[in-house]
Amino acid sequence: VGEAYDAYYKGTDNFAEELADVAIFLMGIAEIEGIDLEAEILKKVEKNKTRQYVCNEKGNMVHV
C-alpha cells in the first residue's frame, strides 16, 4: 500500500501496477483465511450506501 501511495503522489506511471500488487496480496490473505472477498466487498458497499457524508473545510467528503 505504501508503494501505491508513493506512486500516486509522485505521479509515476506504475500506480496501477502497485494497486494490482495490493489486490493480489489481499486476495491471497482472503484465500488463506477462507474468506469470500467478493461477498465481503458487496456487503461493505451496501453498508456504505447508508452512510452520510459532508464536505469539510478542505473540500473533502468525510463520514459523519
Derived structural class = mainly alpha
Helix-strand topology string:
HHHEE
Counted beta strands:
2
The neighbouring-strand order within the major sheet is 1-2
Amount of helix: 55-70%
What percentage of the residues does DSSP assign to strands (E)?
A: 5-15%
Oligomer: single chain
Note down, in words, how this protein is organized.
The mean pLDDT is 95. A two-stranded antiparallel sheet has the order 1-2. The protein is mainly alpha-helical. The chain has 3 helices and 2 strands; from the N terminus they run H-H-H-E-E.
Quick tags:
mainly alpha; two-stranded antiparallel ribbon; 3 helices
Offer a concise description of the structure.
This protein has 64 residues and is mainly alpha-helical. It has helices at 2-10, 15-33, 37-49, and strands at residues 53-55, 61-63.
Write the layout of secondary structure elements.
Blueprint (H helix, E strand, L loop, with lengths): L1 H9 L4 H19 L3 H13 L3 E3 L5 E3 L1
Antiparallel strand pairs: 1-2
